[in-house]
Structures are given as structure tokens and as C-alpha cells.
Design brief:
280 residues; mainly alpha; elongated
Length: 280
Amino acid sequence: MVGPCPCTYVWGRGAEGVVDASASPPRSCDAEGGWLRPQAEEALLEAAEEGDLATLARLLGEGVDINAEARGGWCGTSSTALVNAACNGKLDCLDYLIAQGAHVNAAQNYRWKTALHSAASNGHARCAESLLKAGADTSLEDNDRRTAFDLARIGCHTEVKEVFAAHTRQAAAERAAERAAREGNCCKAAENGDLGTLARRLGEGVNINATDEDGCTALMKSALYGELACLDHLISRGANLNAQDPNQMTALIIAAFKGEARCVESLLKAGADTSLTEAE
């Protein structure tokens, strides 16, 4: 059994419980329940810091915790291998750690800087790009209430700022594509009489008056195919009764043209404009 730790440092428990704030921490300690970082975890962080991918892979293969927070630095600072790799621009190690499941948003406890903060503040654009692709949270703030982008801006790291700008544009495009897909599904649900999907999509905030690739709204699709339940649901949710497709046809004109009498009746009761006409 390992005996009491002889160290008397402020960040570790001494043999007599003595606290010595002036002492410097040792590199490792075997004390039970102590706070000093074990040798293997220290070696993992050092390998990431130095870009020693072979040692990093070996230590992880031996079971060292990839997300270990090793303490022992100034003011009890702790860090992770991913933060160390990002801070020093060691892209190969950073990518390997990400692939092996490292927590991308883990923070260094002294300044509360994540790996993304560290990469951005030190101008490591490729590391920042890898972290963003892995889902690093751009909204997290350090203990000075600064985001990673703030640090890139303060440090005048133009390349890093460009990485953030590209990520923002891509995220916006992906959201737009996802929204378009949901809106298209809404129209398709109305066309197929799938009231459950229609109601769910609308509950998710899909624009009720969005058009599909044919320029038709969900209300028009339900009128076209005589899906009365969907049509009534859309009316109750406030769909635009008088929206027109590229041929200036409204849901009422479409329902009348298709001979969907019950749909025509519902639209008239809801106040659909009978004066609108289709394009000549």
C-alpha cells in the first residue's frame, strides 16, 4: 500500500496536512487521493504539447484517459491533451485526439479556455478549422467573457478569423438547406394527406406558407389532392388562403378546377377571395 505523500504543496495534501504555498510542485505524485497528476497523464499532455503522435497513440492504447485533466501548474491550472495540442498548433495530435473521442469543449481550468480558444488566441488556423468541423462550441466564453473569435480578433489573426467566417457561412447554408427540406416535407405531407407529419413540421416552426419546387404552398397541395383534413388544419393554423402559384392560381381555384367540393367549401367559409383569377 502506498504511504502518505510527503509533499506539502498547496495543491496536494501533505503528510501532516501542512500547506506550503511557496513550494513548487513535483512532476508527479503517488499519493492516494492527492491532486498531483500521475506520470502517465502528464506524459500524455506533454506528448500532445510537443506533437509526439507516436507517444500519444501509445499512451492512449495503454488506457490513459484521453480527457484526463492533469493538475500541478500555476494556481492549480489543469489542462487536457486536446487543449495542449491546440495551444501549440500540433495538428496531427489534435486530429488524432478528436478522432479518438476527445471532448472538444473541455476547458483549461485557470482561464477557462477551450481548445478552440487556445487555437484562436495563438493563431493556429488549421487547428481551429478541425475543432470547428468536430463541433466545437463557438459561443463558449473564457473567464474574461471572451469567445474564441474574440481572441482571434484581439490577436489580429486574420487567417483564423477567415476560418470562423467560412464556418459561419457554411452553418448558415446548412440551416437553410435543412429548413428548405422541412418545408418541402411539409408540402409533401399535405399532398399525401399525412396530417401527423404536417402538424409535426408546423410545430417545429416550418413556414406554413413556404413553397415547394413547383411554387405551391402546402394549402395548394392539399386542395389539389383533396386532402380535406390537411387543408382544414392548415386553415386553422393561419395559412395564407390567397397565396398564388407561378400561374397565379390560389388554393380555391385549384380545388374548384379539380372538383374538390368539400375543399372549396372550407376555403370559402374561411374567407378565400373569389375575385382572384389565374394567369391568362
